[in-house]
Write a structure and sequence with these properties.
Layout lengths: L4 H24 L3 E8 L11 H9 L4 E8 L5 E3 L20 H4 L13 H8 L6 E6 L8 H17 L6 E6 L2 H10 L5 E8 L2 H9 L4 E5 L5 H9 L3 E5 L4 H10 L3 E4 L2 H11 L3 E3 L1
Parallel strand pairs: 1-2, 1-9, 1-10, 2-4, 4-5, 5-6, 6-7, 7-8, 8-9
Antiparallel strand pairs: 2-3
Amino acid sequence: MILPFSSRIRTGVLLFAVLFAVLSSRAYAQTAEVKLFAHRGGAHEFDENTLQAFQETYEQGVRGYELDVRRSSDGELVIFHDDSFKRIVGIDGGIEDLTLAEIKKLRTKKGNPIPTLKEVVAYFKDKPGVYIEFEMKTNNPMYGDKELHQYCDDLYNETYANRPQGSDYLLTSFDKRPLRYLKNTYPQVDLLFIKGDALSQQTVDEAKEMGINRIGASVHKTSREMVQEAKKQGITVSLWPGHSVEDFLLGVSLGSDYLCTDVPLAVQEWVQKNATYINVN
C-alpha cells in the first residue's frame, strides 16, 4: 500500500526521531543540552523580523533570537533581512534606499511595521537572560568604509549600552570587514563568524585569524567529528539553518552548542512531548 504524502512525512519524522533517540542515548547517556534561538524571530511561524514575532515567541517561552540589521539612507539602523522589499513588503527598492521616515510608512504583507534596532533593543531591555545574535547585513549592497565604521559604532553602542542583565548579545556576520573593525575597536565585544558551508578546519582557521571563537555554520554536511575538533580548539559551534524539527535533532546529534531554527515553538513542543532528555535552554 502506498501511503499519502502527509502520512509519509509523519512516518519519516517518527523514524528519524526513533533513530535519534537510539543514537543520542548512546552518545549523551540520555541527556543533551543545547541553546535554541529563533531565526528572525521564528521565520516559518511568524512575520519575520517584526516586533510581533519577538513578542509572541518571548511570551511562549523562547529566550534566544537572531535578527538582521540594515542601515537606512539617513543612517538609522533597521531590522530587515533582504536587500530588497519585494518578498516581505511587495514593492521595489530596499532599506538603504529610503529614509527612516519613509520606511516607517511601510507595512509587511502581513500588516506589520518594520522595526528599528532601537525599538527591538528597548523591548528586550527589561528581559534578563536572553541570547540575541545581531547579524550585520553590510555587503549587499556593499557599505563603504566610512558608513561601515559608523554602522558598527552605532550597532555596538545601541546594543551593549542596553543589554539586560545576564544576557548574551553577539554581533555576527558573513562579512569579515565589520568583524575585524569591531574586534580592533571594541575588544570586549562578542562576535560570531557565519559561513553558509559545513563546519571545516578552514573556517575554524579563518575565525581564529580574526580572534573570534564563535562560528555559525551549516548543519547539513557538518560532521560530529568536526564539531568535536572545533570545540577542542576553543570554538563555540552554532549550526543553521533549522527549517524543521528534524534539522534540530540533527544539530543535537552533531553536538552543537547552539541551534538556530525557523520553528522554535514546534521544536519546543516536540521536545516537551518526546525528548525530555534534551535540555533546551
